[in-house]
Amino acid sequence: MSMWTAITMICVAAMVTGAFRARHRKGHAPESDESLRLLEERIDRLEAELRERVQTLERIVTDRQEDLKRQFDHLEKAS
Fold first, then answer.
1. What is the structure's pLDDT at 31?
2. Which domain holds residue 68?
3. Confidence of residue 27 (pLDDT cuts 50, 70, 90)
4. Contact at 8 Å (CB) between 66 and 60?
5. What pTM did the predictor assign?
6. Is residue 68 scored above 80 in pLDDT?
7. Under 8 Å CB-to-CB from 66, ≥6 apart: which residues?
8. DSSP state string for the chain
């Protein structure tokens, strides 16, 4: 193999590698950003739902009316 053939092969290999890297970077970065954004939105929704559930449970536990209903239910079951 001549020196010029080797130089040509090295240049072609470098160009193919550069093109592959550029395509690989462009192809996956937006996907990763999009999936990260979707995961963050999902976590935010779950957190909001969880907060709402906890607030409802706190209201039920601390509400005197609910406590009174529970006592009546307990008395009905006991008799």
1. 66
2. 3-78
3. low
4. yes
5. 0.45
6. no
7. 60
8. --HHHHHHHHHHHHHHHHHHHHHHHHHHHHHHHHHHHHHHHHHHHHHHHHHHHHHHHHHHHH-HHHHHHHHHHHHHHH-
How far apart CA 6 and CA 12 sit, in angstroms, is 10
Cα separation, 40 vs 18, whole angstroms: 33
How many Å apart are CA 15 and CA 8, to the nearest integer? 11
Domain count, the chain: 1
Q: Nearest 5°: CA angle at 9, between 5 and 26? A: 160
- Residue keyed to tokens 């690989």: 24
60 Cβ contact partners less than 8 Å away, ≥ 6 residues apart:
66
Angle (nearest 5°) at CA 49 between 43 and 55: 135
Q: What is the residue-averaged pLDDT of the chain? A: 82
